[in-house]
Specification:
24% of the residues lie in helices and 29% in strands. It contains 8 helices and 21 strands. It has helices at 36-43, 98-107, 126-129, 201-209, 217-231, 252-261, 278-284, 313-331; strands at 2-4, 7-14, 26-33, 50-53, 59-60, 65-73, 78-83, 87-93, 132-133, 136-137, 142-149, 155-159, 180-190, 239-243, 249-250, 267-269, 274-276, 291-292, 295-297, 304-307, 340-341. The strands form 6 sheets. The chain has a 5-stranded mixed sheet, covered by helices on one side. It has a 5-stranded antiparallel sheet with strand order 7-8-13-11-12, with no helix packed on it.
Amino acid sequence: MLIQSKTIIHSDFLLKNHNTFHIQATAEAFVEVDSVRVLKDILKDNKRPVQILGGGSNILFTKEYYNALFIKNGIKGIKIVEDDATSVVLEIGSGEGWHDLVIWAVEHDFGGIENLSLIPGTVGASPIQNIGAYGVELKDVFVKLEAFNLQTLDIQYFTNEKCQFGYRDSVFKKEAKGQFFITKVYLKLTKPPHTISTQYGDISKILQDKNIEKPTIKDISEAVIQIRQSKLPDPSILGNAGSFFKNPEIPIVQFQALQEAFPNIVGYNTEGGVKVAAGWLIEQSGWKGKRVGDVGVHERQALVLVNYGDGEGNEIKALSEQIQSSVKEKFGIDLMAEVNIL
C-alpha cells in the first residue's frame, strides 16, 4: 500500500466487489479519486497502464491479474448551473450513481431521464454508452461533458456533436477509447409541463392497470422500475451486467427475407434499416435459460448472461461467443457485445 498525497494506492487489490458479474480478479494497483486535483496528482508520475472503473456494471474481467492501475471514480455532486422558466442545466459529478441522479431529478420534478430509471452504472459511464431505454437516449438531454486527458493531464470539453453519439455508442468507444476520464456531465432537463414518453407498450400497460390517465414523471419512473425489476435479475443476488449484447441493425431487405423464413421475428424500423431484438434471436437459437457449468443465460431475459456463483470471466466470454456463433449460423446476423470485455 502506497500513500500518495493522502490518497491511498492499494497494491494487489481484489476486484470481485467492484464488478456486477462478481468475477474474481486482482489489480496490481487500485485507487479511488474524488477530484481532478487528486486524479492529476496520481497520474503525473504513473508508469502503469490505466483502467477507469465506475460502477463495474458494464465490464467483464477475463484475466486473474491485471498489471494496471485501476482508478475508481468517486467524483460526486449535483448542482443547477442554469435555470429558466422551462428548463434547468445540471452539472453532475461523474461518480454519481445514474439511478441516484434519476431519483433526484424526479424528486425535484425535472423531466427527461425518468425513462432511464434503474439503469446501473455511474453518470460518467452514461455518455460512453449513450445509455437508452423505452424511447429515450442520453443524447436527448445531453449538453456537454468535462473530461481529463490521461496523457496530457489537461481538461477538455465534449459537446453533443463532438461525442459522436450512436446506438449504444460514442467517440469514447472508438478513437477516444481509453484516453479520457470523464469528470463532469451536463444535462438539460425540463420543468413542468413535461413531455411524457409512454409509447412503449409495457409502460402503457402498467399505467392502464393502475388507472393512471395523466401520468407524471414519477409515474413513468416507477413503471420503468417495475418493468426492469420483473425482467432483469438483481446483480447483488445474481451476478450479471444487464444486457450483454446490442440489438443488431440490419438492412430492411435482409429483414424482409428473414420475415419470410421467421414470420415472428421482432424488429423495429430505424433511419438506417431495422433494429432486430437480440433477445428474440438468442431465445430462438435455444439459449434462453440454458446453463453451462456455473454461468448461463437468464431464464426470463435472454439478453442477460449470468454468473451463478463461482463462474469465471473466460467462461462467460466463451458462452457469449457460442451464442454469437449460433445466431450467426441460424439468422446470418452478427451480435455485438455491449459489455466491455477486458
